[in-house]
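re: ur question from yesterday

yeah so i grabbed the chain u mentioned. its 272 aa long if i counted rite. heres the sequnce exactly as i have it in my notes:
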Amino acid sequence: MGPVFGPNGPEAFTDDTSDTLWAGTVRGEYTPNEDLLIYAAVKRGVKAGSFNAQLAGGIPVPTSAIPYDEEVLWSYEAGFKAQLLDNTARLNANLFYYDYNDYQAFLFTGVSGVVINADAEYYGADVEFVASPFEGFDFRLAGSWLDATVKDVPLRVDGPISINAKPNYAPEFQFSSMARYEWAAFGGMLSVMGDLSWSDSYFYNLRNFDADKFDSFFFANARLAWASDDGHWEAALKVENLTNAKAGIQASIWPPCAVVMKFPSGPRAGSD
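ran it thru and got these structure tokens back, copy pasting raw so excuse formatting
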């Protein structure tokens, strides 16, 4: 495999892994009428195990933490898809439960990080409503709920303290909407569109410290466009982040100085 950087310098580490992995799906559907589909499914997914590679100069990783096992997911879901209002609208809804065995979680360690195995559970639901009630107008509204827990996450690899943690980048609630209208104008099609999105707060570090949390945010965007009938030409004016929200999208940690670096989304901006 490679070296382990112990207190006396690089030490040899050798190991191998060989697994037979399988995945599959069992799904059932029922259509009581032509406007409604009800379904349920059970799925098994896998992600192969591997090895953590320690960086020179980093915090020593215990030999026991170098290999990590395959991740096994059992997924259970049920939902429906319905056509409404004389086929001018569609409503989709889904409930799910994910049961992870040996969930592969990334844990910051020193100047890099390691993958650890920890069981996890996800409960969730999502709903989407899409409508085109009259010619040229489209509307979409969607929302989701997620209650996810990664169990017995160590604050330090092989350390004595562990917590039940929220996974990274997994907000509990999210909502979004979009409206668009187009009509014939100036020898082509003129359109106006706006979209909104809101996200609950979420962590970007599995240890779930307060400093490792992004706040909730609300985004709004708008677009005005004209397109020629033959599709060869388009002119558009777009404004992103009308609310000038400063939403966290990425972060990293530099442990030698305990520095947390957060990278926010871009400010309000226009383009054409």
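noticed a couple things. The mean pLDDT is 87. also The two ends are 52 Å apart (CA to CA).
anyway ttyl
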